[in-house]
Amino acid sequence: MTAPALARSQPIDAGAAALMVGLTFSWGLNYVAAKISYAGYDPVFLSIMRSLIGGLCVVAWCRWRGIALLSRDGTLAAGIGVGLLFGVEFLFLYIGLEHTTVARNTLLVNSMPFWMLLGGHFFLGEHMTTRKVFGLALAFAGLVLVFADKLGAYKDTMLVGDLLSLGAGLAWAGTNILIKRSNLTSVPAEKLLLYQLAGAAVVGLVVMPFSGPPVRVFALTPTLALLFQAIYVVAFTYVLWFWMLGRYPASGLSSFAFLTPIFGVLCGALFLGEPLSPGVFAALVLIVAGLVIVNRPSRRQIPGEVPDA
User: Fold this and answer.
1) H or E element: which one contains 16?
2) Dist CA 158 CA 71 (whole Å)
């Protein structure tokens, strides 16, 4: 089932690119907030609380704006599928992070644009050209450059953690593809987000009995970091992301995901005092060059065709 939005996807313009840079910076900053909040709360418990608090904020926004959430629109089945994929994504991400390094986890989760490029080609009609592959290869090379000095040899169950992290990237791409393939692109972004937050909360509740104590140390700073993630990152930036996903080519938007770990490294250096190597700046050049190549519109575009972005 192909959503009508597929036929009216727009090329990635300067405004959309600027919004995506802002979103990826926010998601990079979210790594800092998560690291701070882990000092006080278990990661699985944090996932549940982010979903619940963020979901309540979205529901309150919908009531204030008069956005219908319970109307019969034929999206329940797709919504459940997207919610489960979203929940599995974070389940794989958190469990994988327990067995591998943050660098390896971030790198493998952010392999999503490659799976998105393949899925967009086969399922969304977003043709995978040589230029797109080359641009993504440049961006990925920049990402590898950032973490090259941090990737060490396998230890114990690190392979399991790496495979789970890769699975999180696949689930992330699968979520985006299912959204674009279904009629979920025709519903308000807020309702789409609530489907996913509900799925994340349910999956988190299933896993919670097997995780550690929910509250490690109750303190102000970790609590503020949790609220930042729930209210700003979940309730605001995710709604904006899904709104854009319904209006622009999924593979083009997803290619900006390469900026998120870069911004995470930069924010870690700025706010947590983590070391910043010169390779980061070289990586940024590669990533920006790759994004420009991937998102440059085709010179000869047939009217009504999905833009080559």
Assistant:
1) helix 14-37
2) 46
pLDDT at 101: 66
pTM equals 0.74
Q: Which amino acid is it at 109?
A: V
What pLDDT, in 10s, does the model give residues 101-124?
666 777 778 778 778 878 887 888
Please list the residues that pair with 88 across neighbouring strands. none
Q: How far apart are CA 131 and CA 293, in angstroms?
A: 7
Pull the structure tokens for residue 181. 């393939």
Helix (H, G, I), strand (E, B) or coil at 276: coil
Phi/psi of residue 84, each to 5°? -65, -40
State the virtual CA torsion across 191, 192, 193, 199 in degrees, nearest 10.
Answer: 110
Q: What pLDDT score was predicted for residue 299?
A: 42
Average pLDDT, the chain: 80
What is the three-class DSSP state of 215? strand
Return the minimum-mean-pLDDT range out of 29-38, 94-103, 230-239: 94-103
CA distance 120 to 122: 6
CA angle 246, 47, 49 (to 5 degrees): 100
User: Cα separation of 69 and 71, whole Å?
Assistant: 6
Question: Which are the contacts of 139, defined by CB distance < 8 A and separation ≥ 6?
Answer: 113, 255, 258, 286, 287, 289, 290, 291, 294
Read off the DSSP letter of residue 41.
B
